[in-house]
Amino acid sequence: MQITAGRPKDLEKRARILATAKCMFLKQGYHGSSMNQIASEAGVTKLTVYNHFQDKATLFTCAIEESCEEAIPARQFSLHVQSHFAKELYQVCSRVLHLIYLPEALKLEYILLQLAAEQSPLVEQFFKASHQRLTNSLTDFFRQAIELSFIQPAAPVMYTELLLSLLLGIRHQHVLLGMQPVPDQQERDCMIQQSIELFLLRYQVRSSPP
Questions:
Q1: How far is CA 40 from each of CA 4, 37, 164, rounded to the nearest angstrom?
Q2: Is the pLDDT of residue 168 over 70?
Q3: Could you give the CA distance from residue 163 to residue 101 in angstroms, rounded to a whole number?
Q4: CA-CA distance, 84 to 58, in Å (whole number)?
Q5: What is the number of other CB atoms lying within 10 angstroms of the CB of residue 14?
Q6: Is the pTM value of this prediction over 0.90?
Q7: Phi/psi at 204 (nearest 5 deg)?
Q8: pLDDT digits (tens, 9 = 90+) for 96-147
Q9: 3-class secondary-structure state, position 204
Q10: Each residue of 5-49: pLDDT tens digit?
Q11: For position 3, what pLDDT does the model report?
Q12: What's the pLDDT band for 207 if we cut at 50, 70, 90?
């Protein structure tokens, strides 16, 4: 069971351990990073690390969760009745692609794929902290859009899955495999515009003729 520290020095050490762990996991991967190395780089004893985190799996999970919480707020997309939905959707798509193609995000994706190949139990926790968190944020956005009658009533998660499929397509697989570079801003704009046009063509609520 993870120990919760409350004293300022304990909290400062915990934050330093987490910051060090995030850097090392990104740089060296899960298996390439040891608790000894993390303790040494953080300037604390190995016992201190274990006092805050039960084991490497716990430290890894906490590091991933904190990274994703910083990058993906629980509710980062908001709509109101006066919103211009197409413009808001563009901003959402732009934010999503920015997050997905951050260098740190791609490194985490490779770590996830490696753990998945090993059938590691860490995969589900990793997925919930990263992919599922982004999915939940998008689903909340589409739930708002349905409630405000910007798009047709349907399962919000369906809209989320469709939008991600339109945005990423086969290009994302090529990026992960090193076959193509990360799309630049001009390419992203094109991907977003095409995705939005297709999405709105099918699901936007049309105003009734006068």
A1: 21, 5, 40
A2: yes
A3: 16
A4: 43
A5: 21
A6: no
A7: -70, 140
A8: 999 999 998 899 899 999 999 999 989 988 888 888 989 999 999 999 999 9
A9: strand
A10: 456 568 888 989 999 998 999 888 888 999 999 999 999 999 999
A11: 46
A12: low
Question: Under a CB-based contact definition with an 8 Å cutoff, are residues 164 and 96 in contact?
Answer: yes
**Beta carbons within 8 Å of 164's beta carbon, 6+ residues apart:** 96, 135, 138
Domain covering 73-203 assigned CATH 1.10.357 in the classification: yes
Joined together, the tokens standing for residue 30 give 């899960």
Helix 8-28 to helix 103-117 angle (10° resolution) is 80
Structure tokens at 209: 């003729």
Domain definitions of the chain by residue range:
8-69, 73-203
The 10s digit of each residue's pLDDT in 41-72 is 999 999 999 999 989 999 998 988 888 877 77
Length of the chain: 210
**Is the C-alpha dihedral spanning 83, 75, 68, 194 positive or negative?**
negative
Count of other CB atoms within 10 angstroms of residue 114: 14
Quickly name the fold that domain 8-69 has. Arc Repressor Mutant, subunit A (1.10.10)
> What is the CB neighbour count within 10 angstroms for residue 119?
7
Q: Among all chains, which residue has been given the structure tokens 């920015």?
A: 98
DSSP state of 184: -
